[in-house]
# Entry
Amino acid sequence: MTDLNKPIVYIVDDDPAVRESLKWLVESVQISTCLSDSAAAFLDAYDRTVPSCVLLDVRMPGMSGMDLQARMAELGVHLPVIIITGHADVPMAVRCFKLGAFDFVEKPINDQWLLEIIQRAIVADVQRLQYEAAAESARQRMKQLTPREREVLGMVVSGKSNRLIAAQLDLSPKTIEVHRAHVMSKMQAESVPDLVRLHFLADPSCVDIKQSIAASIQLHDSLT
Amino acid sequence: MHPICSSAVGVRLSRPHARVVSRIPSSRRFGRWALAALMIEMCITQVAEPREVPQFDTILNRSRPRHHAAQPLGRIPLGRSSADSTFDHQFFLIASTGCLVEGAIIILLIVQWRKRLAAEQINMQHISHLKRLVDTAREGIWQCDGQWRTVFANTRMAEMFGIPLKDMIGRKLTDLLDARMMPDLQSNMARREQGYSDQLEVRMHRLDGRSIWLLVSGSVIQDEHGKFLGTLAMCTDITERKHADALRDRYTRIVEMIAKQVALGVIMSAVVELLESGLEGAIAFVMTCDAEAGVLRMAVAPQLAPALRSALDRSPMASGTGCFGDATIEKRLVVVQDIQQNPHWDTELVRKYALRACWSRPVLSSTGDVLGILSVVFCTTRSPTDAETHLLEIAARLAGLALERDANTRELYQSRSSLEQRVHERTLELAQANERLSAEIIEHQQADAITQRYAELYRDLYDNAPCGYHSVDRDDVIIGMNRTALDWLGMDHKEVVGIVRFAELLCDKSRARYAEIRSRLLSAEGVTDVELDLLRSDGTILHVLLNSSTTSNTDGTFLHSRTTIVNITEHRRVLNALQESEDRFRQLYNATFEGILLHEEGRILEVNDTMSMLFGYSRAEFMTMSRIELLAVKARENLRREVVNGIDDPINEPYRTIGIRRDGSHLPIELRSKLLTYEGRLVRVTAIRDITEQVRMQDLTDRHREDLAHVLRLSMMGEMAAGIAHEINQPLTAIANFTGGSIRRLQSGHATMTDLLPGLEGANQQALRAGQIIRRLRTLVDKRLPQTTYSDINRIVRDAVDFARTAISEYEVEVRLDLIDKLCTARVDSVQIEQVLINLLNNACEALRDCSAGRRIISVHTGLDEQGQIEVRVKDTGIGLPEDQWPSIFNAFYTTKPRGMGMGLCISRSIIEAHGGRLWAVFPSGDGAEFRLTLPVAEEET
# Structure
C-alpha cells in the first residue's frame, strides 16, 4: 500500500533554470519533486500509485503542455494538472480547463499562490486514489457472487421487492430471500442503500436507475 | 448337275434328208439324250434299209446307259435313201460310246462312204499339183490357225526367214516382226479376225538378224458360222524395193535441203547418212579441197574414229598418194579393195580399226572442178556393185551441188557485204563533212555575236560611264558628248553636238579660267584637275573636275580635244557640311557642362571653356599645368596608385575623386577617361563632371536609409515582442521562484546558510541572464550612427541567430549552421547586417509555421561565391511562395504577414547594396525559399 502522506510534484519545463527554481520552491515546503525536461520524459517517470500533481509548462518543444493533457486523457492518467504559462489569455485558459486542467498560473509565479494550489491538488489526488481503491474492493466483492445472485442484486438495487423478483424469476419468495441474504453478506453491505452504493462504485456505468425504476413501475401496475 | 462330257452327235445323211444335229449338248440329261436318240432313230429308220433296222435297234439298246464300258458300235451299213434313189450311197454308222453313271455319250458318225474314195483320188492329184506349185512359187505361202500359229509354209517362205522348213510349223511369225510394225499389224490382225482380207507391207527380222520387207496378201479362213479359223497369206520379198524407196526419199530430202539453202554441214551429214544407209557396213566421210594448200580437209565424218579423222585430214591432192589423191587428180572413182595391202596407207592405224576396202569418189562442180572427195571405208574387202556405184555417183553429185551452191552463196554474201561496207563508209564521210560545215557556221555566228557585244559594250561604256566625255574641235564646238554629261546638263544630244561651244555651257565666273585652259589645249598641252562650274539647263550649278587631252596632226596642228568631266557637286556639298559640323562641334565643346581635358602623359594639351569655370584657371594657365595638379592632395596618391595598377587605362567606369580649385577649395568630381588619336598622337581625353550636388544627395539618401533601418528594427522588435517578453519572463520566473523558495526556507527556521546558497546563486544567475537579454535588445534598438567595422561574417550570423532565437523557439524550428571554416572579414556595419539576417530568419520561421514539427528546418550557410565574394544563404523548408509573387517580394509594402509593414526585404536589399553587395531570392524546385546575399571581402584590417 502506498503512503498517501508522501506526495510527489512532477515538474515539466524545457527551461532548466525555471525547472530548478520550481524544484527549489516546492521543496521549501517539504514536498518531493520529480523533474522532466519534456512531456515524454514525464510520462515515463509518472507513478500512478503515488498521490501527485504535475506543473506543466504550456510552451515546450516536441509535445506541448496541452498535447500532453490530451495524451494523458487517452492513457487514463487522471492526476491534477497545473498549467504554467508565460502569457495567459482567455482562449488558452478555456482550452486548458476543457482538457481537464486543475488550475492555471502565470509567470512570473506568485509562490504563495502556487503552493496553495499544489496543496489542494494533492488532497484531490489522495481522494481520487481512495475512491479508486474503494471501487476496486467493491468490484472484487462482486466477483464472488454467483450469476443468480448477481441477477437478484441487479433487481434489488433497482428497487424491486422480493415478491416482484420472485414473480419475475419464477422462483419462490423464500428462495429470493435466501439469495438476497447471500448477496448482502458477500457484498458486506449493511443495508440496501449500502448495497446500492457498493454496486454503483463497482460499475458506475451499468445501472440506469431511471430505466429500472420505470420498468418496476410498469411491472407493479401489471401485477395490481 | 451332272458332270458332263461334251460330245457331238454328227449325223450326216443323204442330202435331201440331211439334218445336222451336231453340237447338241446331247447328254446333259437322259431326256435330252433320249430326244437326240429319238431323232437319230427317226432319221435313220427313215433311211435305213428295212433289214438293217433291227441291228440299229440293237446298237441303240446297247448304247443305253446301263452299258458303262465304251465300245464301238460297229459299222452298220445303212440303206439307200428311199426318197432319193439317184444317189448311190452307202452309209455306215460308226459309233462309239462312252458311258457315265447316268448318261451316255454316243458319237455317231454317219459317213457317206460311197464315191468318197474316187473323189479322194482326184483330190490327191490336185494336192500334189498344188504342192509342186507351192514349192516352186517365188512368193512365200503361209497359213496359220486361229491363234496365228503357222500351220503351213512353203520352202520359199522358210528361206525368206532363214528358218528350216520344219521349224516353221507351230511358230508364231509375229515374233519375228519388227517392233515398229506392231501397231499396224495388230489393227490388221483385228481386221482379219473380223473376216477382212487385205494387203500389208511389214518389216520382219530374219533369224540371222537382217531385216526384210514383206508384202503380205492374206485371205481369211472361216468356218460356216464366220468364226476365224486362220489365214492364208502370200508373202513377197520387197526389201530391195523398200531400200530403193528409202534412198530415193533421202535423195529427195537432200535436194530439198540444197534448194532451201540449209547449212552445208547438215547437208553433208545427210549425204554421208545416205551413203551409210545405202552401203551395208560402210563408214562414209567427206573431205573438201583446200586448193591453196593442195590438201584435202576432213569435213564431215560422223562415224569415223577421231584418230583416223585427224590422220586423214590434210591428205595431199596428188596422184599416187592413196585413193583420195588419185581420185582428185583422175576425177574418177578409185576403189581400193584392201587398204591394208596398200603402201600409201598407214598400215598400223588401218589395222587397228580393221579397215579394208576404201572407195573414193571425187566431188565435182558443174564445170568439172574438183571440190572435194566422198569416201567410204569398209571392214571387209569388197568392190562396188553397179547399184553401189550408182549410189556413190548420186551422193557425189549431191555433195557437188551442195558445195557449189554453198560456195556461190558465200561469194554472193561477200560481195553484198562489201557493197554494204562501201555504202556505210560513204555515208560516214558525208556525215562528217556535214558536221564540219555546221561547226564552221556556228563559229562564224559566235564571232559575229562577240563583235556585236564588244560594240555594244564600248558604246555603253562611252554613254553610261560614271563620268562625262566630250570632244571639241578647233573652234571649241562640241563634236561629241556622252549621255552621262548630257544628263548632268539636262540637255539633248541634238541641241548640243555640232552646235554649242563648250564655253557657252560654263558659268560666267568659270569662263575666264576656261579661256586660259583653251589656249593651253590649242598648243597641244593636256590639262588635269581643273575645277569648273557648269550651268545646267534648269539654271542650277554643276561643279565639275575637268581633264583634257588633245589630238594633233602630224605637223602639230590641233585637231580636237577629248575631255572627261567628273561631277564633284556632292563632294563639294560634303566638304561644306563638314566645315559647318566642325564649327558646331567646337561650339558644343565649349558649351558642354562637363569639363573636357586633353592630355598626353599627364601634360595638358587642350581644355574647354567649362574647365575654366570649374577650376578657375584660365586657358593659358591650364596649358602650363599637369593633370595631377587638378586633384586634391589626398586624392593624388590614389590616382597614382590606380594608374600604376592599370585601373586608369582606360577608365571606362566613372571614377570619383576630389578636385582642387585655383582658390584651394575642394570640388567632388567624377572622371571618365578614354584614349584617342589627336593630331597623330595617342592622347587621353578626360571628361570631368562636378558632382557636388550628387554627393550631397547621396549623403542624404544614406541618412534616410539609416533612419528607415532603425525604424524597421524598432518595428521588428514590436513584431518580436511576444517572444522577447517570454524570453525575459523566463529568468524573471526563475528569480521569483528561487527567492520565494529561499524566503520560505528562512521562515521555516531550519535552514542553514549553505542550504540557502543554491537558491541565491540561481537567482543571481537568472538576473544576469535577464540583463544580457536587455543589453542585446538595446544594441539593436538604439538610434546610433552607422559604424563600419571589420567583422567576421560567422560572428554576425551567430549573433543574428541568437537574436532570432525567440522566434525560432516559438515556432520550434531547427536551425542548421554550415559556416565557412576560415576567417572571412567584411567591412560592414554589423548591426545592419544582423538586422538583415534577423529579418530573413524571422521570415523563414514565419514560413515554417504551418509545417509539421520535424520539418521545420532553417539552414544558414556562409562561404565564398565564384567571384570570391562572401555569400550567405538562408534556406527554409517552408511553404515557399507562388511563382507569380516572386518578382514582388523586394517591393516596398509587399508583405504576406497579417501585421507586417512590407518594408523588411526592401530595406534589407538597400542595406546590402549600400555595403556593395547583393540580396536576392531563389525558389528551389522543392518547397521552401532561399535568400542569398553577397558582401565584398575586406582586403585588409586596420
